Amino acid sequence: MPCLLAHLMQNDIRKEQKYSLTLAGRSFVIAFGRDSTAAYFKDWCHPCAAAEPPLSLHCSDWEFWQSCGLPVTEDSEYSLWAGRISEELMPYGCFLFHAAAFCCQGMAYLIAAPSGTGKTTQIRALQKLLPGKIEIICGDRPLVEFSEGGEVMVYPSPWNGKEGLSGGSPAPLAGVIVL
Length: 179
What we know:
This protein has helices spanning 2-10, 61-67, 74-89, 119-129, and strands at 13-23, 26-34, 45-47, 55-57, 94-96, 100-104, 107-112, 134-138, 143-146, 152-155, 171-178. The protein has 179 residues and is an alpha+beta fold.
């Protein structure tokens, strides 16, 4: 037991500190394993109020990572949460999509390509070409939701790429550009 406690302290794992998180119009309670991981979600999470949302999430992958001898760092926990949130949103027709998303004239567009290809560079080029008409929704992994009525919506997410580009308003999907 002392060895496990030392491992947990070394990795900055804390007892649960719960936050409220809203993504694609759905509210969750999320408990981070590391103090420093909350910084990745600073614009998305708020301390839990008395009335908690119905979905309370815990990232069970921590135990798996630790059992393999892998340290849970801020970066790995941030990525683990992407998978955990995706699992929870899939029954609602919503998932994280590896693309950059932008809005033009009220419609969303996704630019899909392998990492490092230049998705956000393309959006910035469009912003220069069309000043004031291009708004970035999410720089890396927006949430894409398919409604029962057939509409597809694109939402920003905390997984917004190394540039941290996010914050645009949700918009209906008009097209996907593949680089």
